[in-house]
């Protein structure tokens, strides 16, 4: 006669051991997050302390330099300056210059003689127009003085001192240098020098 097997018995741990294991797990679950935060706070505190004490690491300057290097620099755009259009020369200025050239070539006048002719009651050019004409005329005034001196000689004026006075008077208005050149071509140097020394 066989004996039937007895039903399996479940081993139940003692109540105190179950309670201790449960408390240990709950304690670990409560302690782990707080330990992690403590470690993080300690690390952050150490990093902050090292940054504050270090002169090499300059966070703001690093950030600023990085930002500056990434920002493209704009080249200044060229400014277009509009030059004012030149004022057209009045026709009267050109006419005065043409007449001045005629006076220098045909009448062999001095510079001041040309000015007197242009501003006379006959021509009636302004001082500005006459000045423009004189500045643009091509004339050899010493040669003009020599031409007039020869004319005066042909009219009977042979005295070099008189010639000097006539060339530089209010009628012809040659400069002393122009008159001296004319006399140098007509008389010996000693005579011209004596006249010039008397004038001084």
TrEMBL record:
Gene3D superfamilies: Winged helix-like DNA-binding domain superfamily/Winged helix DNA-binding domain (1.10.10.10). InterPro entries: Ltp-like_HTH, WH-like_DNA-bd_sf. Residues 68-90 are annotated as: Disordered. Transmembrane segments: none annotated. Residues 93-137 form the Putative host cell surface-exposed lipoprotein Ltp-like HTH region domain. Keywords: Lipoprotein. It comes from the Bacteria. Pfam families: Lipoprotein_Ltp. This is Putative host cell surface-exposed lipoprotein. It comes from Bifidobacterium actinocoloniiforme DSM 22766. The lineage of its organism: Bacteria, Bacillati, Actinomycetota, Actinomycetes, Bifidobacteriales.
């Amino acid at each position: 006669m066989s004996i039937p097997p007895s039903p399996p018995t479940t081993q139940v741990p003692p109540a105190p051991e179950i309670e201790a294991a449960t408390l240990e797990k709950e304690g670990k679950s409560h302690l782990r997050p707080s330990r992690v935060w403590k470690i993080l706070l300690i690390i952050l505190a150490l990093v902050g302390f090292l940054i504050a004490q270090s002169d090499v690491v300059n966070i703001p300057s690093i950030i600023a330099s990085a930002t500056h290097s990434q920002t493209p620099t704009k080249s200044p755009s060229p400014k277009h300056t509009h030059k004012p259009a030149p004022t057209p020369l009045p026709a009267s200025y050109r006419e005065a210059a043409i007449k001045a050239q005629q006076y220098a070539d045909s009448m062999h006048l001095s510079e001041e003689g040309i000015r007197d002719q242009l501003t006379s009651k006959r021509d009636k050019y302004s001082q500005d127009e006459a000045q423009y004409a004189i500045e643009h005329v091509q004339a050899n005034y010493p040669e003009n003085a020599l031409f007039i001196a020869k004319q005066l000689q042909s009219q009977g004026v042979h005295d070099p001192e008189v010639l000097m006075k006539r060339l530089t008077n209010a009628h012809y208005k040659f400069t002393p240098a122009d008159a001296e050149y004319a006399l140098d071509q007509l008389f010996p140097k000693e005579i011209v020098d004596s006249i010039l020394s008397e004038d001084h």
